[in-house]
Amino acid sequence: MTILADDLTGACDTGCLFAGAGAVGVTAAPLLVADDRAVLAVDTGSRALAPPAAAEAVHAAARALGGRLDAGVTFKKIDSTMRGHVAVELDALLEQVSRFTGALVCPAFPAQRRVVSHGRLLVDGVPLHESSIARDPALRGGSAELSALLDGSRPVVRLGLDDVRAGHEKIAHVLEQHPGALFASDAETDADLASLAAAALAVPGTLAAGAAGLGRALALALGLAAPPAPLPPGPARLVVVGSLHPASRAQVDALARRGVAVVTVDDTGGDPDSAIEALRGGRPAVVTSGTATISHRPAAREAIARQLARAAARVIAGARPDLVAVTGGDTARALLEALRPRRFDLLGAPADGLALGRLALAAGDSLPLLTKAGGFGEPDLFTTLLGGTS
Asked: Which of 232, 276, 331, 357 is the most buried (most CB within 10 A)?
């Protein structure tokens, strides 16, 4: 089983759902090396790239994985709000892997209030292009119509809710009638996603593409679904926040109001001493980017993520936390670059949108790592995870 995602948190939050038969490996080329583990989650690092570069990144990953994609089940993880170059990457994957005859696409994630209804992607009940996500520079289209967001070099066939709820055999029949197409599917519930997963598995050559909602349905259908993973014990927990999303900034504010030590990293760096002191004393701490440093330019965002990761690595070296939680795909990838683990395994999901893993570091050390995509969670998410603070 192989999961291909365009960023690291996406690879993790979906890969961890398949950990029912054992730990899931993570690779983010060129940082980590792929191996022959039964389930592998791959970050192509392509979300912020220009379309030709994103296509080449997918081509390169498919060439490198070769036999896995020819012999096993593949899931193309896409963002639940269609950020990135979804149509471009799907086309590249269908081009590179000859056994794929089409793609069944549904970004719905009902647990996070993202659904596709009457062909439109809704976020918290609001059409995508009218939601807060519309301000994200990684969103490539000004529409909520899933068919329009998938428009590219391949025909797009709509699957309405009536088709979906007629059962997986009906869906499979539609898939077989349009080889080479992208199928833009409605889904409002987990039961809808279960029907889509069953249909994708029933029609050879169908590439399933979706968010963690469809990923979970596929894991259940394959018997690979993992139970909720408990967080490791210990109060010395470090939260690293690099996401620009308002949900992540609200989570930082909630931690600060609870008296958690916050290290703000700006253009001159940040002083990690307060975070190290808190962790050594058995208390949580936060490392985050300052709002003044936030930029929507990809190069600037990458530079900030690297700076934030270096500061977090200094904190981790100075006071080994019981758990590190990181939010934002750019920041998670930069943290891996800074820590250089020998191996990264996913153990399961403590809750929707969260992925718990373990980094194998040098000299036999290991570090529990929790990842979260930036756009998920209520303001009190991290205060709840930290068990409350004073």
From this structure: 331
